Amino acid sequence: MSISLLGAAEIRALAEQLDVHPAKSLGQNFVIDANTCQKIVRLAVISQGDHVVEIGPGLGSLTLALLQATNKVTAIEIDERLAKQLPITAKEHGVPDGNLQIMNQDALQVFDIPDNPTKLVANLPYNVSVPVLLNFLERFPSITSGVVMVQTEVAERLAAKPGSKTYGVPSAKAAWWSDMILADSVSRSVFWPVPNVDSSLVKFVRHAPLGDESLRRRTFELIDRAFGQRRKMLRAIYADIYGGSAAAETALLSAGVEPTTRGESLSVERFAAIAKQLDRR
Ligand code: SAM
User: Fold this and answer.
1) Which of 171, 186, 206 is the last residue in one of the domains?
2) What is the DSSP string of 65-124?
């Protein structure tokens, strides 16, 4: 039996039946357009061997499109009513038993997913999109690529390169694990309720690690500090961790970074090079 997708009328009827009034606090804007779901799945290039993790499946529109492409999806949903309904909807739409696992949990609190997921595909809840994405990249190294739908402003920040106006903490941190590509924009009209922000798709592909966990932590601390005081020069910002501005200057020069530079022009590789100098104080 083939798997059928959800349409706009069915999504509204399901919400009514469950007495779900989409909650802004949970970023509940449901995709009511099957073409958009299929487009996301195509962009994620999923094959039958993939174990896809979806965060926030909601009423299941993207989940069913994912299950057309692979026989293994784990969906993590915080809202109990939605999590309980999802297996029923899946069965009614032709999903074979065992192909969909549901975890009724806050994605931020998920540290373990059975059977190493290989891809992450999600229309992320907007209020937690950046921490959820960064946490999943950190906690699940088996995830090699994925596609996420986020607020356009966030998508631009995630994919920004050093020196651009939108480059900041999310850009530098996401780049530790992955290449982030701004893939497409999504019309507001595909959502119910219609959100008051624009949305875009970001595709990510994991690259080789830039260092071990200890180096990552030190690098992230340097990134947080650099963007916490955006207008200051790095020599001044790092003076206290390197034991004075002269020592900070030496560390920066050894890492090949001009001490008068500001964080907004540095790639994550440069931040990591500075962090390596912390070992040699
Ligand atoms: N995937 C569905 C779609 O495209 O129609 C729903 C997407 S909606 C933008 C976000 C979903 O994430 C909602 O179902 C919401 O209940 C869920 N959610 C919100 N915060 C969450 C969290 N911390 N952990 C897991 N799910 C969450």
Assistant:
1) 206
2) HHHHH-S-EEEE-S-HHHHHHHHHHHHHTTPPTTSEEEE-S-GGG----SS---EEEEE-
